[in-house]
Amino acid sequence: MEPVGDTTGWYIWAGEYSDADDFFVPLHTAHVDEWDPKIKKYLGLAPGCRFLIAEDLRMCGLKNSY
Questions:
Q1: Is pTM beyond 0.70 here?
Q2: Which one-letter DSSP state was computed for residue 25?
Q3: Under the phi-then-psi rule, with left for phi > 0, alpha for psi from -120 to 50, and beta for the rest, what region is 15?
């Protein structure tokens, strides 16, 4: 998504997606390293980009590392 106001436009989740109203909660970029430092390098990608970090590629339906 395009950045709006004081947001980055990123929506990040871990685990199974939920339609719950409180599924996405604000996270200031100053706290990214505390939450999961692996995602920091991806936050500079252009709007509309996606990334997937999988510890176990079988969970993503992938058989090989790309």
A1: no
A2: -
A3: left
